[in-house]
Design goal:
Distance between the termini: 5 Å
CATH architecture of the largest domain: 7 Propeller
Structural class: mainly beta
Number of strands: 25
CATH class of the largest domain: Mainly Beta
CATH superfamily of the largest domain: YVTN repeat-like/Quinoprotein amine dehydrogenase
Strand order of the largest sheet: 1-25-24-23-15
Helix content: under 10%
Largest sheet: 5 strands, antiparallel
Order of helices and strands: EEEEEEEEEEEEEEEEEEEEEEEEE
Oligomer: single chain
Length: 277
């Protein structure tokens, strides 16, 4: 089995100063601008062009965790809020730092959009892979992979049948269990452990395990690393993708010929095509 990794994800926008300091829950893009909603209770704006992305300003007047941000198409207006049941959003002019934000309540569930500079809501549509907010969990449901955010709302759906990893995974021969940074594998027929001492490459807690075939096991962790193991040779990962995500990986899933990893903080999804099986 050959694994080909795709590094296509968000371009790094932080120049080391002024960027979000905690988990990023949502991102909005307008011409020349990128806005980040973060658990640090702020909305951060970067000015971007083909060569660089530079921190511009931040708004920290919401008073709580910011889960959703939306820029008007022309970048003149910005709305941000928790995404919780209150439906409370702050709406303000992007250019003005002195003009206080207006508070607006949108009680309907759905996607935010601007119409003639008026903030409105429409029924929630499927998000694009790689352009969603924080992903806390993924489930296989009715022929789709469904990702949920930190408040239990749907981030997006992928219309494909897939298997989702967990803290334990099994196939016809083996059962694997994650315990902190370690993996233990047991032969289901004999009950014997399979050389568990070698499964120690993760720097932080393992978040997802998933058997890909009879012998190969994928593991992802809160360290952002992704490894593929051969059960018969546990002392050496057959595929290493260290820092596959810039933050923790919340889940793994596999389709017929792909392995998917889901970013817990940046919301990005990376795919790894499985060939030669």
């Amino acid at each position: 089995m050959e694994l080909k990794g795709s590094n296509n994800g968000f371009r790094s926008l932080s120049d080391g100063t002024g960027g979000p300091t905690k988990a990023v829950n949502d991102i909005s893009i307008a011409p020349g601008l990128a806005a980040f909603a973060s658990d640090d209770r702020s909305v951060t704006l970067f000015k971007i062009d083909e060569k660089a992305a530079v921190f511009w300003k931040s708004f920290d007047d919401y008073g709580g965790l910011v889960g959703i941000v939306k820029l008007a198409e022309n970048g003149s207006q910005i709305a941000y809020g928790s995404g919780g049941s209150s439906g409370l959003f702050h709406v303000r002019c992007v250019e003005s730092d002195e003009q206080p934000a207006e508070k607006q309540v949108l009680t309907e569930q759905g996607d935010l959009y601007y119409d003639n500079e008026q903030l409105k809501v429409k029924p929630k549509s499927h998000g694009l892979v790689g352009a969603v907010g924080a992903i806390k969990s993924v489930v296989s449901k009715a022929g789709k992979l469904v990702a949920y955010d930190h408040v239990g709302q749907t981030s997006f759906e992928i219309s494909t049948q897939g298997r989702v990893g967990d803290l334990q995974s099994e196939n016809e021969r083996y059962k694997a269990v994650a315990d902190g940074k370690r993996i233990s594998v047991t032969n289901k027929d004999s009950g014997d452990a399979v050389r568990t001492s070698g499964w120690t490459l993760h720097d932080s807690t393992i978040s997802s395990l998933l058997f890909l075939d009879e012998n190969r096991l994928a593991s992802a962790g809160l360290d952002g690393h992704l490894f593929i193991w051969d059960v018969n040779e546990p002392f050496k990962a057959v595929f290493k993708f260290e820092h596959a995500h810039h933050g923790p990986i919340s889940a793994l899933a596999s389709t017929e010929n792909e392995l998917l990893s889901f970013g817990q903080e940046d919301g990005s999804v990376r795919y790894y095509r499985l060939t030669g099986q």
